[in-house]
Amino acid sequence: MKTLFDKDTWQEIFSSIGQNKVRTIITVIGVLWGIFLYIVLSGAAKGIDNGFERQFERISSNSLFVWGEVTSVPYNGFKTGRQIRLKLSDVETLKNKIQEIQYIAPRNVSGLWGTSGGKIVHGQKTGTYNVYGDYPVFTTITTKNIYDGGRFINESDITFNRKVCVIGERTRQELFEEDENPIGEFIRINNIYFKVVGIHKYVVEGGMADDGDIHIPFSTYKKLYNSGEHVHFLIVAAFDDADIVKVEQDIRTVLKDRHNISPADMRAIGGFNLGEMFKQITKFASGMTFLSLIIGLATILGGIIGIGNILLISVKERTKEIGIRRAIGATPKEIRIQIILESVFLTIIAGIIGIILGALVLSGINAATKDMTDYPFTNPTVPIPYILGALFLMVVLGTLIGLIPAHRAISIKPIDALREE
């Protein structure tokens, strides 16, 4: 290892690099560009992945929504155009027949199927908001942040049909004075007084909520809007290891059987599979990461091959010098190590500069997008092990490509080199 730390060796390396400045810089840029592309594209893919995780972090990623629509196929004596309305009894049936289901939250919302919109009154102020009939399990599937001093709907509220509600931040701002604490106060929903027991913070949830939403107990909603056992829609959360696409198919099969719907009717049961969409997004981000790896490696390989070509030219131009060194006692091993060191050195320098530039670009992107809550992109980063792995691969490739000019150098016979003009 003496040659590795020998001052003369490094002086010769820098002298060789200095003799081919333009070609060296151009080739180094090629390697640099490869690692730069890999860092930026991988970071961007991670940023998209992080962004969608942030958008849906407050709701189970393996969940879906189902609701009743209108039949499009006649079946069992029923004509087309029949309105399908889900029922509370569907909840237990689904849980009993589909083992992959972890939670089901039945929900009703004002303004659907003959129910009046949510015109809310407090004192002299009025506003229109969505009024949801909910069970406590709703917050198990999708998290609600409640301000200190408040709470969400609980089981006692359901059991005793309590007239309590949880309001949103916008509802608070529009119906209450700035210095007024809504907790314990009353608002009127359909001319019925409801006590405010909580205020939910507005957090971006991928379009799943509004800052004016009002939540009341499901049992109270039934009486307020005379909805009986009907359910507007269900939120279903499957276990993490369940195939959410299959779960949706099974749910549709069970509901079609319960509501006399033709198995061929694709419109009677509406749905939105959040879990499937989340998995598609994850696959897209993984595909981008893989693509960035391919592009980066191809560019890096092209640059490293360029370094090998430069070293071959350098060896040819230094034939006489190498012959003299061999004649005065330089061993083939020393010559080989010098050439390989030159290749690895150029590769490492290019890699480090590319990593620094890529990190700076990602830092700039992160600074520009950190406050963009309406766009699914945040914290574009590349894990340190990935960066170190890419740098290690560059060193390996730099060593391998350096073997070619090194072999060419040690194959030169001293007597032939001394005759070279």
Protein described:
The longest helix is centred in the C-terminal third of the chain and has 44 residues, at 274-317. This protein is 52% helix and 15% strand. Strand 8 (186-189) and strand 9 form a beta hairpin. The two termini are 33 Å apart. The mean pLDDT is 82. It is an alpha+beta fold. The strands form three sheets. A six-stranded mixed beta sheet has the order 10-6-3-12-1-13. Helix 2 (21-55) runs antiparallel to helix 9 and helix 11 runs antiparallel to helix 12 (384-410). It folds into two domains: 3-56 and 279-419, no CATH class; 63-274, no CATH class. The protein has helices at residues 7-19, 21-55, 89-97, 138-141, 155-159, 169-175, 218-225, 244-258, 274-317, 319-327, 332-369, 384-410, 414-419; strands at 63-68, 86-87, 101-109, 119-122, 125-128, 131-134, 164-168, 186-189, 192-200, 214-217, 230-231, 233-238, 269-273. It is built from 13 helices and 13 strands.
